[in-house]
Write a structure and sequence with these properties.
alpha/beta
């Protein structure tokens, strides 16, 4: 069990909290961080549009918004907002399973608060390689432990 992790869902597309907690546990072990506080919120496209507008001055929906409150890369204090509507659109567009896309977005958010960035082309490529590596690794682990994805 991971301390200081909270998972909330107000979205219409259901997400397994047990799965999310397992993904965070795997990330914690691989990326070697501690958690001061990590809140993962699954929300609608309308809600993430409001968050994106209020805090980032972007008036559109997006799949994830990450707030990093950490003073250190070794100790995470962050909040992730993941739009399940956008995740479903991504899954359809990229011909992936919805749950796989949710796992990818959790990984993406954690990578952001662990020092990865995707603003520049080279950084984006590096982050995407790590995201793909972790996603592929975790899919097999989650399936072998019968955590339903």
């Amino acid at each position: 069990m991971i301390k200081n992790l909270e998972v909330y869902s107000e979205a219409r597309h259901k997400v397994s909290k047990a799965l999310i907690k397992k993904v965070v546990e795997l990330l914690k072990n691989d990326l070697k961080f501690e958690i001061s506080s990590l809140i993962i919120n699954f929300v609608s496209a309308a809600k993430i549009t409001l968050i994106n507008s209020d805090f980032l001055n972007h008036n559109y929906s997006t799949d994830i918004v990450t707030f990093n409150y950490s003073d250190s890369l070794a100790v995470i204090d962050a909040e992730l907002f993941i739009s399940t509507d956008d995740a479903l659109d991504n899954a359809i567009r990229f011909k992936a399973e919805f749950t796989e896309e949710i796992i990818r977005l959790v990984i993406h958010g954690i990578l952001h608060v662990s020092g990865f960035d995707d603003k520049e082309k080279n950084d984006r490529a590096r982050m995407k390689r790590m995201e793909n590596k972790l996603l592929n690794k975790y899919k097999s682990v989650l399936l072998s432990q019968e955590v339903k994805i």
